[in-house]
Amino acid sequence: TIREQLVADFPHHVECRSDLGAALHNLASMNFYQAQDELALERLDRAIGLQRAVVADSPLYSQAHEYLRNHLTLRGSCLAKLGRRDDLVATVHELEKFETDRSALRSAARLWLRAAEMQSPNAPQTAEVATQRATALRRALDLLLAAERLGWGPGNPLGQKLYDPLRGMPEFATLHQRRKDAETARQANRRK
Q1: Using CA of residue 85, residue 90, residue 95, residue 97, what is the dihedral sign?
Q2: Helices in 83-126 by DSSP H: which ranges?
Q3: What's the longest Cα–Cα distance across the chain?
Q4: DSSP state of 160
Q5: pLDDT, tens digit, for every residue of 34-83?
Q6: DSSP state letters, 1-31
Q7: How many whole angstroms separate alpha carbon 44 and alpha carbon 75?
């Protein structure tokens, strides 16, 4: 493609490399929705490699950080869809390193919730499986609370079914109520 040729011609140009990663992400997203998951992963892994290199070369280039977060989030969704829990957890750990990015933290929380539910319902409940699930749920809640401390941002309603495993936790109930109150206040301010 044109972007690949640009990167070949100008390998040290970070914007070209970052843009190629974004183009690969867009193709991977299309593959994901067409259930071409292995092809999506292949493209995402290339995009992630490009963005990691851009971030290493230009740590202040915010677009590369944002793109890398998006690539990791889509990779996690793809891995969850494929049932590859260990790879999903590794991806979530990398996403958690975006400690000051509330969107990354909320995405990591959602992926932890998906990892928590990846055990087969017919599989025997061992102590190890129970511990893995409890750890994933705790990490998800901790990340949601951290995202709230950073200002939460738009979207991500906590009423979705994905959050059902957290509903028995008092901290989640309180967080959910705070988010509902904040959304009600935001809508009231918009009407003024």
Answers
A1: positive
A2: 85-96, 102-116
A3: 56
A4: S
A5: 999 999 999 999 999 999 999 999 999 999 999 999 999 999 999 999 99
A6: -HHHHHHHH-TT-HHHHHHHHHHHHHHHHHH
A7: 6
